[in-house]
Specification:
With 257 residues, this protein is an alpha/beta fold. The protein folds into 2 domains: 28-107, Roll (Ubiquitin-like (UB roll)); 126-256, Cytidine Deaminase, domain 2, CATH 3.40.140. Helix content is 25%, strand content 36%. The chain is built from 6 helices and 16 strands. The protein has helices spanning 49-59, 128-140, 143-148, 171-184, 202-210, 224-233, and strands at 4-13, 16-25, 28-34, 37-44, 69-76, 79-84, 97-98, 106-107, 126-127, 152-158, 161-168, 193-196, 215-218, 236-242, 245-250, 255-256. The strands form 5 sheets. Strands 11-10-12-13-14-15 form a 6-stranded mixed sheet. It has a 4-stranded mixed sheet with strand order 4-3-6-5, with helices on one face. Strands 1-2 form a two-stranded antiparallel ribbon. The chain is flat. This is Sulfur carrier protein FdhD. It is found in: Cytoplasm. Belongs to the FdhD family.
């Protein structure tokens, strides 16, 4: 399936209208089945769907490693079937807390008491100049955003720079795709940096902490509750990382100037 399509639109600028062809991002409903039973529908950009599903299941606490997945198969457009070796953690009828992002994201963890998230013990140091350099590289590498202006992006960085990245209409989906890629490629995230274009809400912070990522850097703003959560789980949280500036909300002990 194409992820970008062209449509005819009318453009208005400075009192003048013209008919042009514009590129827009495709959105689809993705039904997830676990052990042949319907689980949830996600609205997403239709690429890297297996990575999205794996990351979503990890974030939901349904898997903790790729070894728990017996198979994953896209049998038709908009449908992915996952076979889990043990589905005792899967609750098919459960009251969900809907996220504040695009689509129908959800989390099963109780975000108020934070029972399912461990404190990040990582004590690595990160240079602020390197973080800003990574963010500049990340912002210039977002091809889908350049083409359509309609996606969020996430990227994992190591000591050698950008490692893997993902884009999607939903900021939660982009992060889940990234987590799924890390699971498939056995990438250890405990000392990595997560870059994101999107707002950091509490659910994004929780996904980050569950993946054991110690440093989260956003081009945008965090919410007040996300800052509280970052301090509780010891995640270094940075917002408004643009040009040569940033706001540090928590975990300054990991940063060197």
């Amino acid at each position: 399936m194409d992820i970008v399509k062209e449509i005819d639109i009318t453009k208005y600028s400075n009192g003048i209208t013209e008919n042009i062809t514009d590129k827009i991002i495709v959105e689809e409903a993705l039904d997830i089945y676990i052990n042949n039973k319907y689980y949830v529908t996600l609205m997403c950009t239709p690429y890297e769907e297996k990575e999205l599903v794996l990351g979503f299941l990890f974030s939901e606490g349904l898997i903790s490693s790729i070894k728990e997945v017996e198979n994953i198969e896209k049998k038709s457009e908009g449908m992915i079937f996952v076979g889990l070796r043990d589905n005792k953690r899967v609750i098919f009828e459960n009251k969900r807390a809907l996220t504040s992002g695009c689509g129908r994201g959800s989390i099963h963890v109780n975000i108020l008491v934070n029972k399912n998230v461990d404190i990040i013990e990582n004590t690595c140091n990160y240079k602020i100049k390197d973080i800003l350099m990574y963010m500049k590289e990340f912002n210039t590498a977002s091809n889908l955003f350049k083409e359509t202006g309609g996606v969020h992006g996430c990227c994992i960085c190591g000591c050698d720079g950008l490692l893997i990245s993902s884009e999607d209409i939903g900021r939660h989906n982009a992060l889940d795709k990234l987590i799924g890629k890390s699971l498939l490629n056995n990438i250890d995230l405990h000392d990595k940096i997560l870059l994101t274009t999107g707002r950091v809400s509490s659910d994004i912070l929780i996904k980050t902490a569950k993946a054991k990522i110690p440093l989260l850097v956003s081009h945008s703003a965090p919410t007040e509750f996300a800052v509280k959560m970052a301090k509780i789980v010891n995640v270094t949280l940075i917002g408004f990382a643009r040009g040569n500036r940033m706001n540090i909300y928590s975990g300054e002990h990991r940063l060197t100037y």
